[in-house]
Design goal:
The protein is mainly alpha-helical. Helix content is about 45%, strand content about 10%. A three-stranded parallel sheet has the order 1-2-3, covered by helices on one side. Helix 4 packs across helix 5.
Length: about 120
């Protein structure tokens, strides 16, 4: 195994230990915000994925070679956002963490994501 693969394997083992170890399941007291969700109280460590909310249809025309299965979607499309929340939940993701900058477009997209996530009982941070 070359050095690069060895470092990658070591990093994956460390990450697995951080998110899957018994100490992680008890690191936050029950009821303390998102970390105190029902999944933590049951002993399961919550899983969050970083969510990018700034895609427009034209975003996909800038030096892209690969496209998502959803196609050249817009983060303004509620059907796409709902499908993304449902897909995330289907693979065991409990919520999204997203960055946000105060602009009219990103404010609108964040509100749409929060609304859809609430209707799906999905966390957003």
């Amino acid at each position: 195994m070359n050095g690069r693969l060895r470092r990658l394997a070591a990093a994956l083992v460390c990450i697995a230990g951080l998110i899957g170890g018994p100490a992680a399941a008890t690191s936050a007291p029950a009821g303390s915000g998102a970390a105190g969700s029902a999944s933590t109280r049951s002993g399961r460590v919550p899983v969050y994925a970083y969510f990018y909310q700034w895609f427009s249809r034209s975003s996909w025309q800038r030096a892209k070679m690969d496209y998502p299965l959803a196609g050249t979607y817009s983060s303004d499309d509620p059907h796409v956002l709902r499908a993304q929340v449902q897909q995330a939940r289907s693979v065991g993701i409990d919520g999204f963490i997203t960055s946000w900058k105060d602009t009219p477009v990103l404010d609108r997209r964040l509100q749409l994501l929060l609304s859809i996530a609430a209707s799906e009982q999905f966390h957003v941070g």
